[in-house]
């Protein structure tokens, strides 16, 4: 597929995505890497645009250069964003209030703290993305390791074998520094890559996943 063909397919997918105003987004493609530039009206729209581009066959990488721009009347003070973020994390994740700390500067949320599971860490980020006035989120929440490296590796490999949509024999799993998981190998598309990464995060004791998978 030529760069121009891939560029047009991504443009068409952005036009098709109802959560995205494609009129303000520029698309460039070079050897399977797509660059998105321009501006969007919210952080949620920025993420939706990236997901739409990832769905296109032939996209192997994305350079995200979209800027979040709010209308003057829609700007929200940092202290108000922080207060809402703390409340929604507590309501949505059922974590103790002091498990996750929130800092907001110029609309950018930074999450810190410590939790036991990746789904808790991920959910804390997901619920604050949709808050009005948010320009971006940095998730620095740490995970507490509770398993040995051998156990983590075995559980991940077993999970990959159970999934009928994953060619587990083509994936290499290694665990270093306690709960740091390295994934290597070749996959068919972004969906398979996401499933493999999700399987790795589901193993107890995983604190970090380094995705070194390549899309064929």
The main pleated sheet reads as:
4 strands, mixed
Strand content: 25-35%
CA radius of gyration: 19 Å
- Stretches with pLDDT under 50, minimum 5 residues: none
H and E string:
HEEHEHEEHEEHEEHE
Number of helices: 6
Architecture overview:
There is one protein chain. The chain has 216 residues and is α/β, with parallel strands linked by helices. It folds into three domains: 3-69, Histidine-containing Protein, Chain: A (2-Layer Sandwich), CATH 3.30.1340.30; 73-143, Histidine-containing Protein, Chain: A (2-Layer Sandwich); 149-215, Histidine-containing Protein, Chain: A. Helix content is 38%, strand content 30%. The chain has helices at residues 3-16, 43-54, 78-93, 118-129, 149-162, 190-202; strands at 25-30, 33-40, 61-68, 100-105, 108-115, 136-139, 142-143, 171-176, 180-187, 208-215. Strands 4, 5, 6 and 7 form a four-stranded mixed sheet that branches. Strand 8 (171-176) and strand 9 (180-187) form a beta hairpin. Helix 5 (149-162) crosses helix 6. It is flat.
